[in-house]
């Protein structure tokens, strides 16, 4: 288990670092190069993942939540439905979880290209998609 978390935690930190990139957001419904504000004023992005995701993915989401809290003093909520989100969100899903794939697809992030691959991931920053202001979508091939 330590090996799996040793991969997930740096991955989460990579996304935190990418979220602070200086590229301006793209227009409506378009991808941005990497700009995503985890926190803007007193508003913090909500973390969204399917309830049926692997426990390792849940742990990664909790680690990300903890890291954001340590850095900003604000704690993001973790929810299981995109409908529970009002503003910006981080959507996390794996290609091995049908509900996770559907969640990613609902915000415009296909994950079919990750099917059958090991320890692969991709991410996109999407604006005005899935009824949300801005989404950081993170797709993994599996829970590792």
Number of helices: 3
The fraction of residues assigned to DSSP E strands is 25-35%
SS-based structural class? alpha/beta
* Strand order within the widest beta sheet: 1-7-8-6-4-5
Gyration radius (Cα, Å) is 14 Å
Instruction: Give the low-confidence spans.
Output: 1-7, 13-32
From the N-terminal CA to the C-terminal CA, the straight-line distance is 10 Å
Elements, N to C (H/E): HEEEEHEEHEE
What is the general shape? globular
- Annotation, overall tally of beta strands: 8
| Helix content, binned percent | 25-40%
Largest sheet: number of strands, sense, barrel closure: 6 strands, mixed
Mean pLDDT: 77
Question: Could you walk me through the main structural features you see in this protein, from its secondary elements to its overall organization?
Answer:
This protein is an alpha/beta fold and 144 residues long. It has helices at residues 2-19, 55-72, 98-106; strands spanning 31-32, 39-40, 43-44, 46-49, 78-79, 89-94, 121-129, 132-140. The protein has a six-stranded mixed β-sheet, sandwiched between helices. The chain starts with a helix and ends with a strand. Residues 1-7 and 13-32 have low confidence and may be disordered.
Topology (SSEs and partners):
Elements: H1 2-19, E1 31-32, E2 39-40, E3 43-44, E4 46-49, H2 55-72, E5 78-79, E6 89-94, H3 98-106, E7 121-129, E8 132-140
Parallel strand pairs: 4-5, 4-6, 6-8
Antiparallel strand pairs: 1-7, 2-3, 7-8
Helix pairs in contact: 1-2
């Amino acid at each position: 288990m330590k090996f799996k978390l040793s991969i997930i935690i740096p991955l989460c930190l990579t996304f935190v670092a990418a979220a602070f990139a200086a590229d301006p957001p793209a227009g409506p419904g378009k991808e941005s190069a990497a700009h995503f504000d985890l926190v803007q004023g007193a508003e913090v992005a909500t973390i969204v993942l399917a309830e049926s995701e692997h426990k390792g993915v849940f742990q990664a989401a909790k680690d990300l939540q903890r890291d954001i809290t340590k850095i900003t003093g604000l704690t993001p909520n973790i929810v299981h439905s995109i409908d529970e989100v009002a503003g910006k969100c981080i959507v996390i899903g794996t290609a091995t979880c049908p509900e996770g794939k559907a969640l990613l697809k609902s915000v415009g992030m296909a994950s079919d290209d990750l099917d059958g691959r090991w320890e692969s991931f991709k991410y996109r920053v999407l604006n005005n998609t899935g009824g949300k202001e801005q989404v950081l979508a993170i797709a993994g091939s599996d829970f590792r």
